[in-house]
Amino acid sequence: KAGVTQTPRYLIKTRGQQVTLSCSPISGHRSVSWYQQTPGQGLQFLFEYFSETQRNKGNFPGRFSGRQFSNSRSEMNVSTLELGDSALYLCASSLGVYPGTGETQYFGPGTRLLVL
Amino acid sequence: AQKVTQAQTEISVVEKEDVTLDCVYETRDTTYYLFWYKQPPSGELVFLIRRNSFDEQNEISGRYSWNFQKSTSSFNFTITASQVVDSAVYFCALSELRGSSNTGKLIFGQGTTLQVKP
Fold first, then answer.
1. Subunit contact A100:B111, Cβ cutoff 8 A
2. Contact at CB, A101 and B102, closer than 8 angstroms
């Protein structure tokens, strides 16, 4: 079974631009979560989607948004990029059979975003 | 508030040595889930183990073993006879709770970088 896939793998943008990252979960998985990883802050939760609905959101500004489609694929968008948005963005999927029960999350390879 | 602490920032061992990675967590609830993930240089987080708070049995999987002690709020990870391929960053994580339910949010420790030298 194919794992979580994320596109693109690498991205270079300039301040003020916007970016959209894509995540395809493991086949059959219905929950998708996003995390930001930086050297200073470590791994931080961005948001979680289940059945096209945002179930949970981390402490990030409104410039960070996301959505989930009916096939469980998810996208996250960052508008008006800042230098501090440079990070590895990781997507994770879980079965979603019992949302909110600590299901195992399986991670994709991440998208490395560099903001210049 | 829930929190995960991995006090060891970096550990360096020589191949075939045993090494233990420490993880201490804080939570006020009785039901929770703990995880360990491995992050090799490629960046992807690889799932290693999931443990719920009611299962205090230690677990062994090949060269890996986990010691869960609720009394000390610790969930330590031991690699026996380490190999160069074990070099990676290891993360301990706690599933966030909201009331009596878990959410989809994982709270991660800062990670421990393990370097295994040949």
1. no
2. yes
